Amino acid sequence: MSIEWIVKILQNNLPMFLRGAGMTLFISIIGTLIGTLIGLLVGVIRTIPVPDRGLKKVCLKIVNIILSIYIEFFRGTPMIVQAMVIYYGSAQFLGIDINKIVAALFIVSINTGAYMSEIVRGGIISIDKGQFEAAQAIGMNHFQTMMNIVLPQVIRNILPATGNEFVINIKDTSVLNVISVSELYFQTKTVAGNNYRYFEAFFVTCILYFIMTYTVTRILRAFERKIDGPENYIMAGNQMQVERPEDILQKTKDVVA
Description:
Low-confidence stretches: none
Number of domains: 1
CATH architecture: Orthogonal Bundle
Order of helices and strands: HHHHHHHHHH
Structural class: mainly alpha
CATH topology: MetI-like fold
Number of strands: 0
Largest sheet: none
Radius of gyration: 26 Å
CATH superfamily: MetI-like
């Protein structure tokens, strides 16, 4: 490895690296946000209680089967294969010419949604059943119970997993180079090919990926601590004056005297 070549590559190609990193972050952020919304929606639908009989039971079973197929397919196949099938397959079989960026956002979003739906479902199941029963006792339906009681707790509980999915998406966007999306990996291949210095170019890219993932991880952990709040709470209107041990001892001496 030549330090001089690393410096030279950075000097001559820094705008390309930055454009690639910017595209990687853009696709990762939008894809994770949309995927999380998909996961929340799918997770809520899959936890709707199925009645014993009637049309509602049939409809829910059909919907659950469709959602299960969606989850298992996108969790069970690599994103690089999904990208090839969706982008090139839609053009070949459906005659639809999808914009590369739109295709990339769609692929990352639905892939993330499949993983997040299981994370959300697990978060909902982890909530104590007594809270569901209490909500039902005061007349809340499933949607009201989710919006007012369950989901606020679930969102907090799944925040670390959501952050982990975001970090994974930052790295996994590199597979989108197969549909010629100009993310960081694609730009690095161009730089390396122009200079015939593959090791130095990809070493720079390795550092850039690490900076992005490390920064995102630190920000998310700080956000988690902010949501948790302080470790000790004082109830409003019920503040108690805590006396020091020496004050208590002095009062005891005064009483005895």
